[in-house]
Amino acid sequence: METTTWPDWEREAERALFELADRCRTVVTVGLSMGAALVLHLGAKHPGKISGVVAVNPIVRRPGLRFAPLARLIMRTTKGLGNDVKRPGQDEIVYERVPLRAANELGKLLRVTGRELPSMRLPLLVFSSREDHTVKPANSKRVFERAGSDQKEFVPLANSYHVATLDFDAATIFERTLAFATALAGGSSAISA
């Protein structure tokens, strides 16, 4: 993470997207946290390749990241964040330390994604944990309110923390995402407007 920039992350995600789009008629991008910011960005940039976007506890604003360039003058790394899971026995593998350069790059990605939200017009499904110790739930509301999508749905998660895909509400996320993707592919599930 010390040697990559957010455009490197973007290029890798685009490579995978283009590969899928060449093989599949319907592509739905799904991301958690920073991954959600990245798939929202891809949705704004490549609407012809993506049929819909699913954002789970997305981050699009984190004011403290503005100070990462200054903090880099004093220290190279900071304690890694993660494992915000309510369900006992679940464990998320996280980095012990994160380079501050990566935090700075994340801040750049978030600023770009935040500006692009009104131009992200693809069908959108947003999942938001009511209690999240990593990303403020206001991020999910901001994504839902600012996204230019005509078809969008906001799904509150009552029994999960940040890493909701490993938590008590995981089955809800998977079932609703499958229904969303099926509807976009021309199946029988309905998309809320």
Helix-strand blueprint:
Layout: H1 6-23, E1 28-32, H2 34-45, E2 52-56, H3 68-71, E3 77-79, E4 97-99, H4 100-116, E5 124-129, H5 138-146, E6 152-157, H6 170-184
Parallel strand pairs: 1-2, 2-5, 5-6
Antiparallel strand pairs: 3-4
Helix pairs in contact: 2-4
Structure description:
With 193 residues, the chain is an alpha/beta fold. Helices cover 39% and strands 15% of the residues. It is built from 6 helices and 6 strands, in the order αβαβαββαβαβα. The protein has helices at residues 6-23, 34-45, 68-71, 100-116, 138-146, 170-184; strands spanning 28-32, 52-56, 77-79, 97-99, 124-129, 152-157. The strands form 2 sheets. It has a 4-stranded parallel beta sheet, with helices on both faces. α2 (34-45) crosses α4 (100-116). The radius of gyration is 17 Å and the shape is globular. It starts with 5 loop residues before the first helix and ends in a 9-residue tail after the last helix. 39% of the residues are buried. The mean pLDDT is 88.
Radius of gyration: 17 Å
| Large-scale geometry | globular
How many helices? The count is: 6
Percentage of residues assigned to helices:
25-40%
Low-confidence stretches: none
> Major beta sheet, specifics?
4 strands, parallel
Tell me the number of strands.
6
Sketch the topology as an H/E string, one letter per element.
HEHEHEEHEHEH
Strand content: 5-15%
Alpha-carbon distance between the two ends: 39 Å
Average pLDDT metric: 88
Please give the order of strands in the largest beta sheet. 1-2-5-6
Give the class from helix and strand content and strand pairing.
alpha/beta
